[in-house]
């Protein structure tokens, strides 16, 4: 009498027990590593706000991709910041443009590494928005879809294993899927940034990708951080239009959304641990306030526990090495 009938601590008493009954397990195979490609040769330009992350010329991106593959990371997500930017996103449409060149170069050297190509207008336009800007300054949805589909086709032809539209235009998944299929690229998956929030956590990324908008903000097309039901609406629409995988971005502040999406759909769910999440951890670790490795593993475990099947993270290569050590 007086003793508890149930003792959950019995299976916490040693590391061996804790590992045996662990419910959520991080896997190297679930990680995707972002890469930022810029013009030039032998360029490794550190991103000041993202310690350890660099803008890379194509030759250096190939080396980084090889290193990620050697560590066991199965996929990279490619972003390009071309020198030439215009209102039409011409470089992204060019078969010899920066992104297409990088895709082809990585696939030639690492054919087994999956290359996901981010599909958007922001990095290749002089205004930095994710869609075309009308004469009245409005982001025009339908003309943007046509261009996004052409960009996706360009990247798929260059060898991309998946195209990942991040623009948040209405109907762009259907437009991309229809064009890819009509051009015989029926096996190229679409990874939809389905629930992408207008987040303050993107700031360091905009330095790395050189994609800050020249005016205004992206709140007319990215989601309001206060909305959850709308996320499910967006996700279900993208699946109906042909998305093979759906993404929640950011990850850490939106664990509830990841869980709701995971419960609602049958396709793989991707979560993006974004630049601001990365930089906050790096800054705190640099001051000695936290144990970087422990916090990274805990945050990624939380994202997986919430329901993410795959996680895009700037820590991916480090985590792959940690998990294999």
CATH C-level class of the domain at 26-246: Alpha Beta
CATH topology (fold) name of the domain at 26-246: TIM Barrel
Largest sheet: 10 strands, mixed
CATH homolog superfamily of the domain at 26-246: Aldolase class I
Rg from Cα: 20 Å
How much of the polypeptide forms β-strand, as a percent range? Answer: 15-25%
Look at the structure and give the mean pLDDT: 96
Alpha-beta content class: alpha/beta
Alpha-carbon distance between the two ends: 47 Å
* H/E element order: HEEEHEHHEEEHEHEHHEHEHHEH
Helix content: 40-55%
Strand element count? 12
CATH 2nd-level architecture of the domain at 26-246 = Alpha-Beta Barrel
How does this structure look, described?
With 325 residues, this protein is an alpha/beta fold. The chain has a domain at 26-246: TIM Barrel, CATH 3.20.20.70. Helices cover 40% and strands 16% of the residues. It contains twelve helices and twelve strands. It has helices at residues 15-20, 58-71, 90-93, 98-109, 141-158, 172-182, 203-209, 229-241, 255-264, 275-286, 292-306, 316-324; strands at 31-37, 44-46, 54-56, 75-80, 114-119, 132-133, 139-140, 162-165, 191-196, 245-249, 269-273, 310-313. Strands 1, 2, 3, 4, 5, 8, 9, 10, 11 and 12 form a ten-stranded mixed β-sheet that branches. Helix 4 runs parallel beside helix 5 (141-158), helix 8 packs across helix 9 (255-264) and helix 9 runs parallel beside helix 11. It is globular and about 80 Å long. 48% of the residues are buried.
């Amino acid at each position: 009498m007086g003793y508890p009938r149930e003792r959950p601590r019995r299976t916490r008493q040693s590391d061996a027990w804790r590992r045996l009954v662990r419910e959520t397990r991080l896997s190297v195979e679930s990680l995707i590593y972002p890469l930022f490609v810029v013009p030039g040769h032998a360029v490794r330009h550190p991103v000041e706000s993202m310690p350890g992350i660099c803008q890379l010329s194509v030759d250096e991106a190939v080396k980084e991709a090889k290193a990620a593959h050697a560590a066991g990371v199965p996929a990279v997500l490619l972003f390009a910041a071309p020198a030439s930017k215009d209102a039409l996103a011409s470089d992204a449409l060019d078969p010899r443009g920066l992104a297409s060149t990088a895709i082809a170069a990585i696939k030639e050297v690492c054919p087994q590494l999956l290359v996901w190509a981010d599909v958007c207008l922001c990095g290749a336009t002089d205004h930095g928005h994710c869609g075309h800007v009308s004469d009245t300054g409005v982001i025009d949805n339908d003309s943007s879809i046509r261009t996004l589909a052409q960009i996706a086709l360009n990247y798929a032809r260059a060898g991309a294993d998946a195209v990942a539209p991040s623009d948040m235009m209405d109907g762009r998944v259907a437009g991309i899927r229809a064009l890819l299929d009509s051009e015989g690229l029926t096996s190229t998956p679409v990874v939809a940034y389905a629930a992408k929030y207008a987040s303050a956590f993107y700031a360091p990324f905009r330095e790395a990708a050189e994609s800050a908008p020249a005016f205004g903000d992206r709140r007319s097309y990215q989601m309001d951080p206060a909305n959850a039901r709308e996320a499910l609406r967006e996700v279900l629409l993208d699946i109906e239009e042909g998305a093979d995988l759906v993404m929640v971005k950011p990850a850490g502040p939106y664990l509830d959304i990841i869980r709701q999406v995971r419960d609602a759909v049958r396709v793989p769910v991707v979560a993006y641990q974004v630049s601001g999440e990365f930089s906050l951890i790096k800054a705190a670790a640099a001051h000695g306030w936290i144990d970087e490795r422990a916090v990274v593993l805990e945050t990624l475990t939380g994202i997986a526990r919430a329901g993410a099947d795959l996680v895009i993270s700037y820590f991916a290569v480090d985590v792959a090495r940690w998990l294999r050590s």
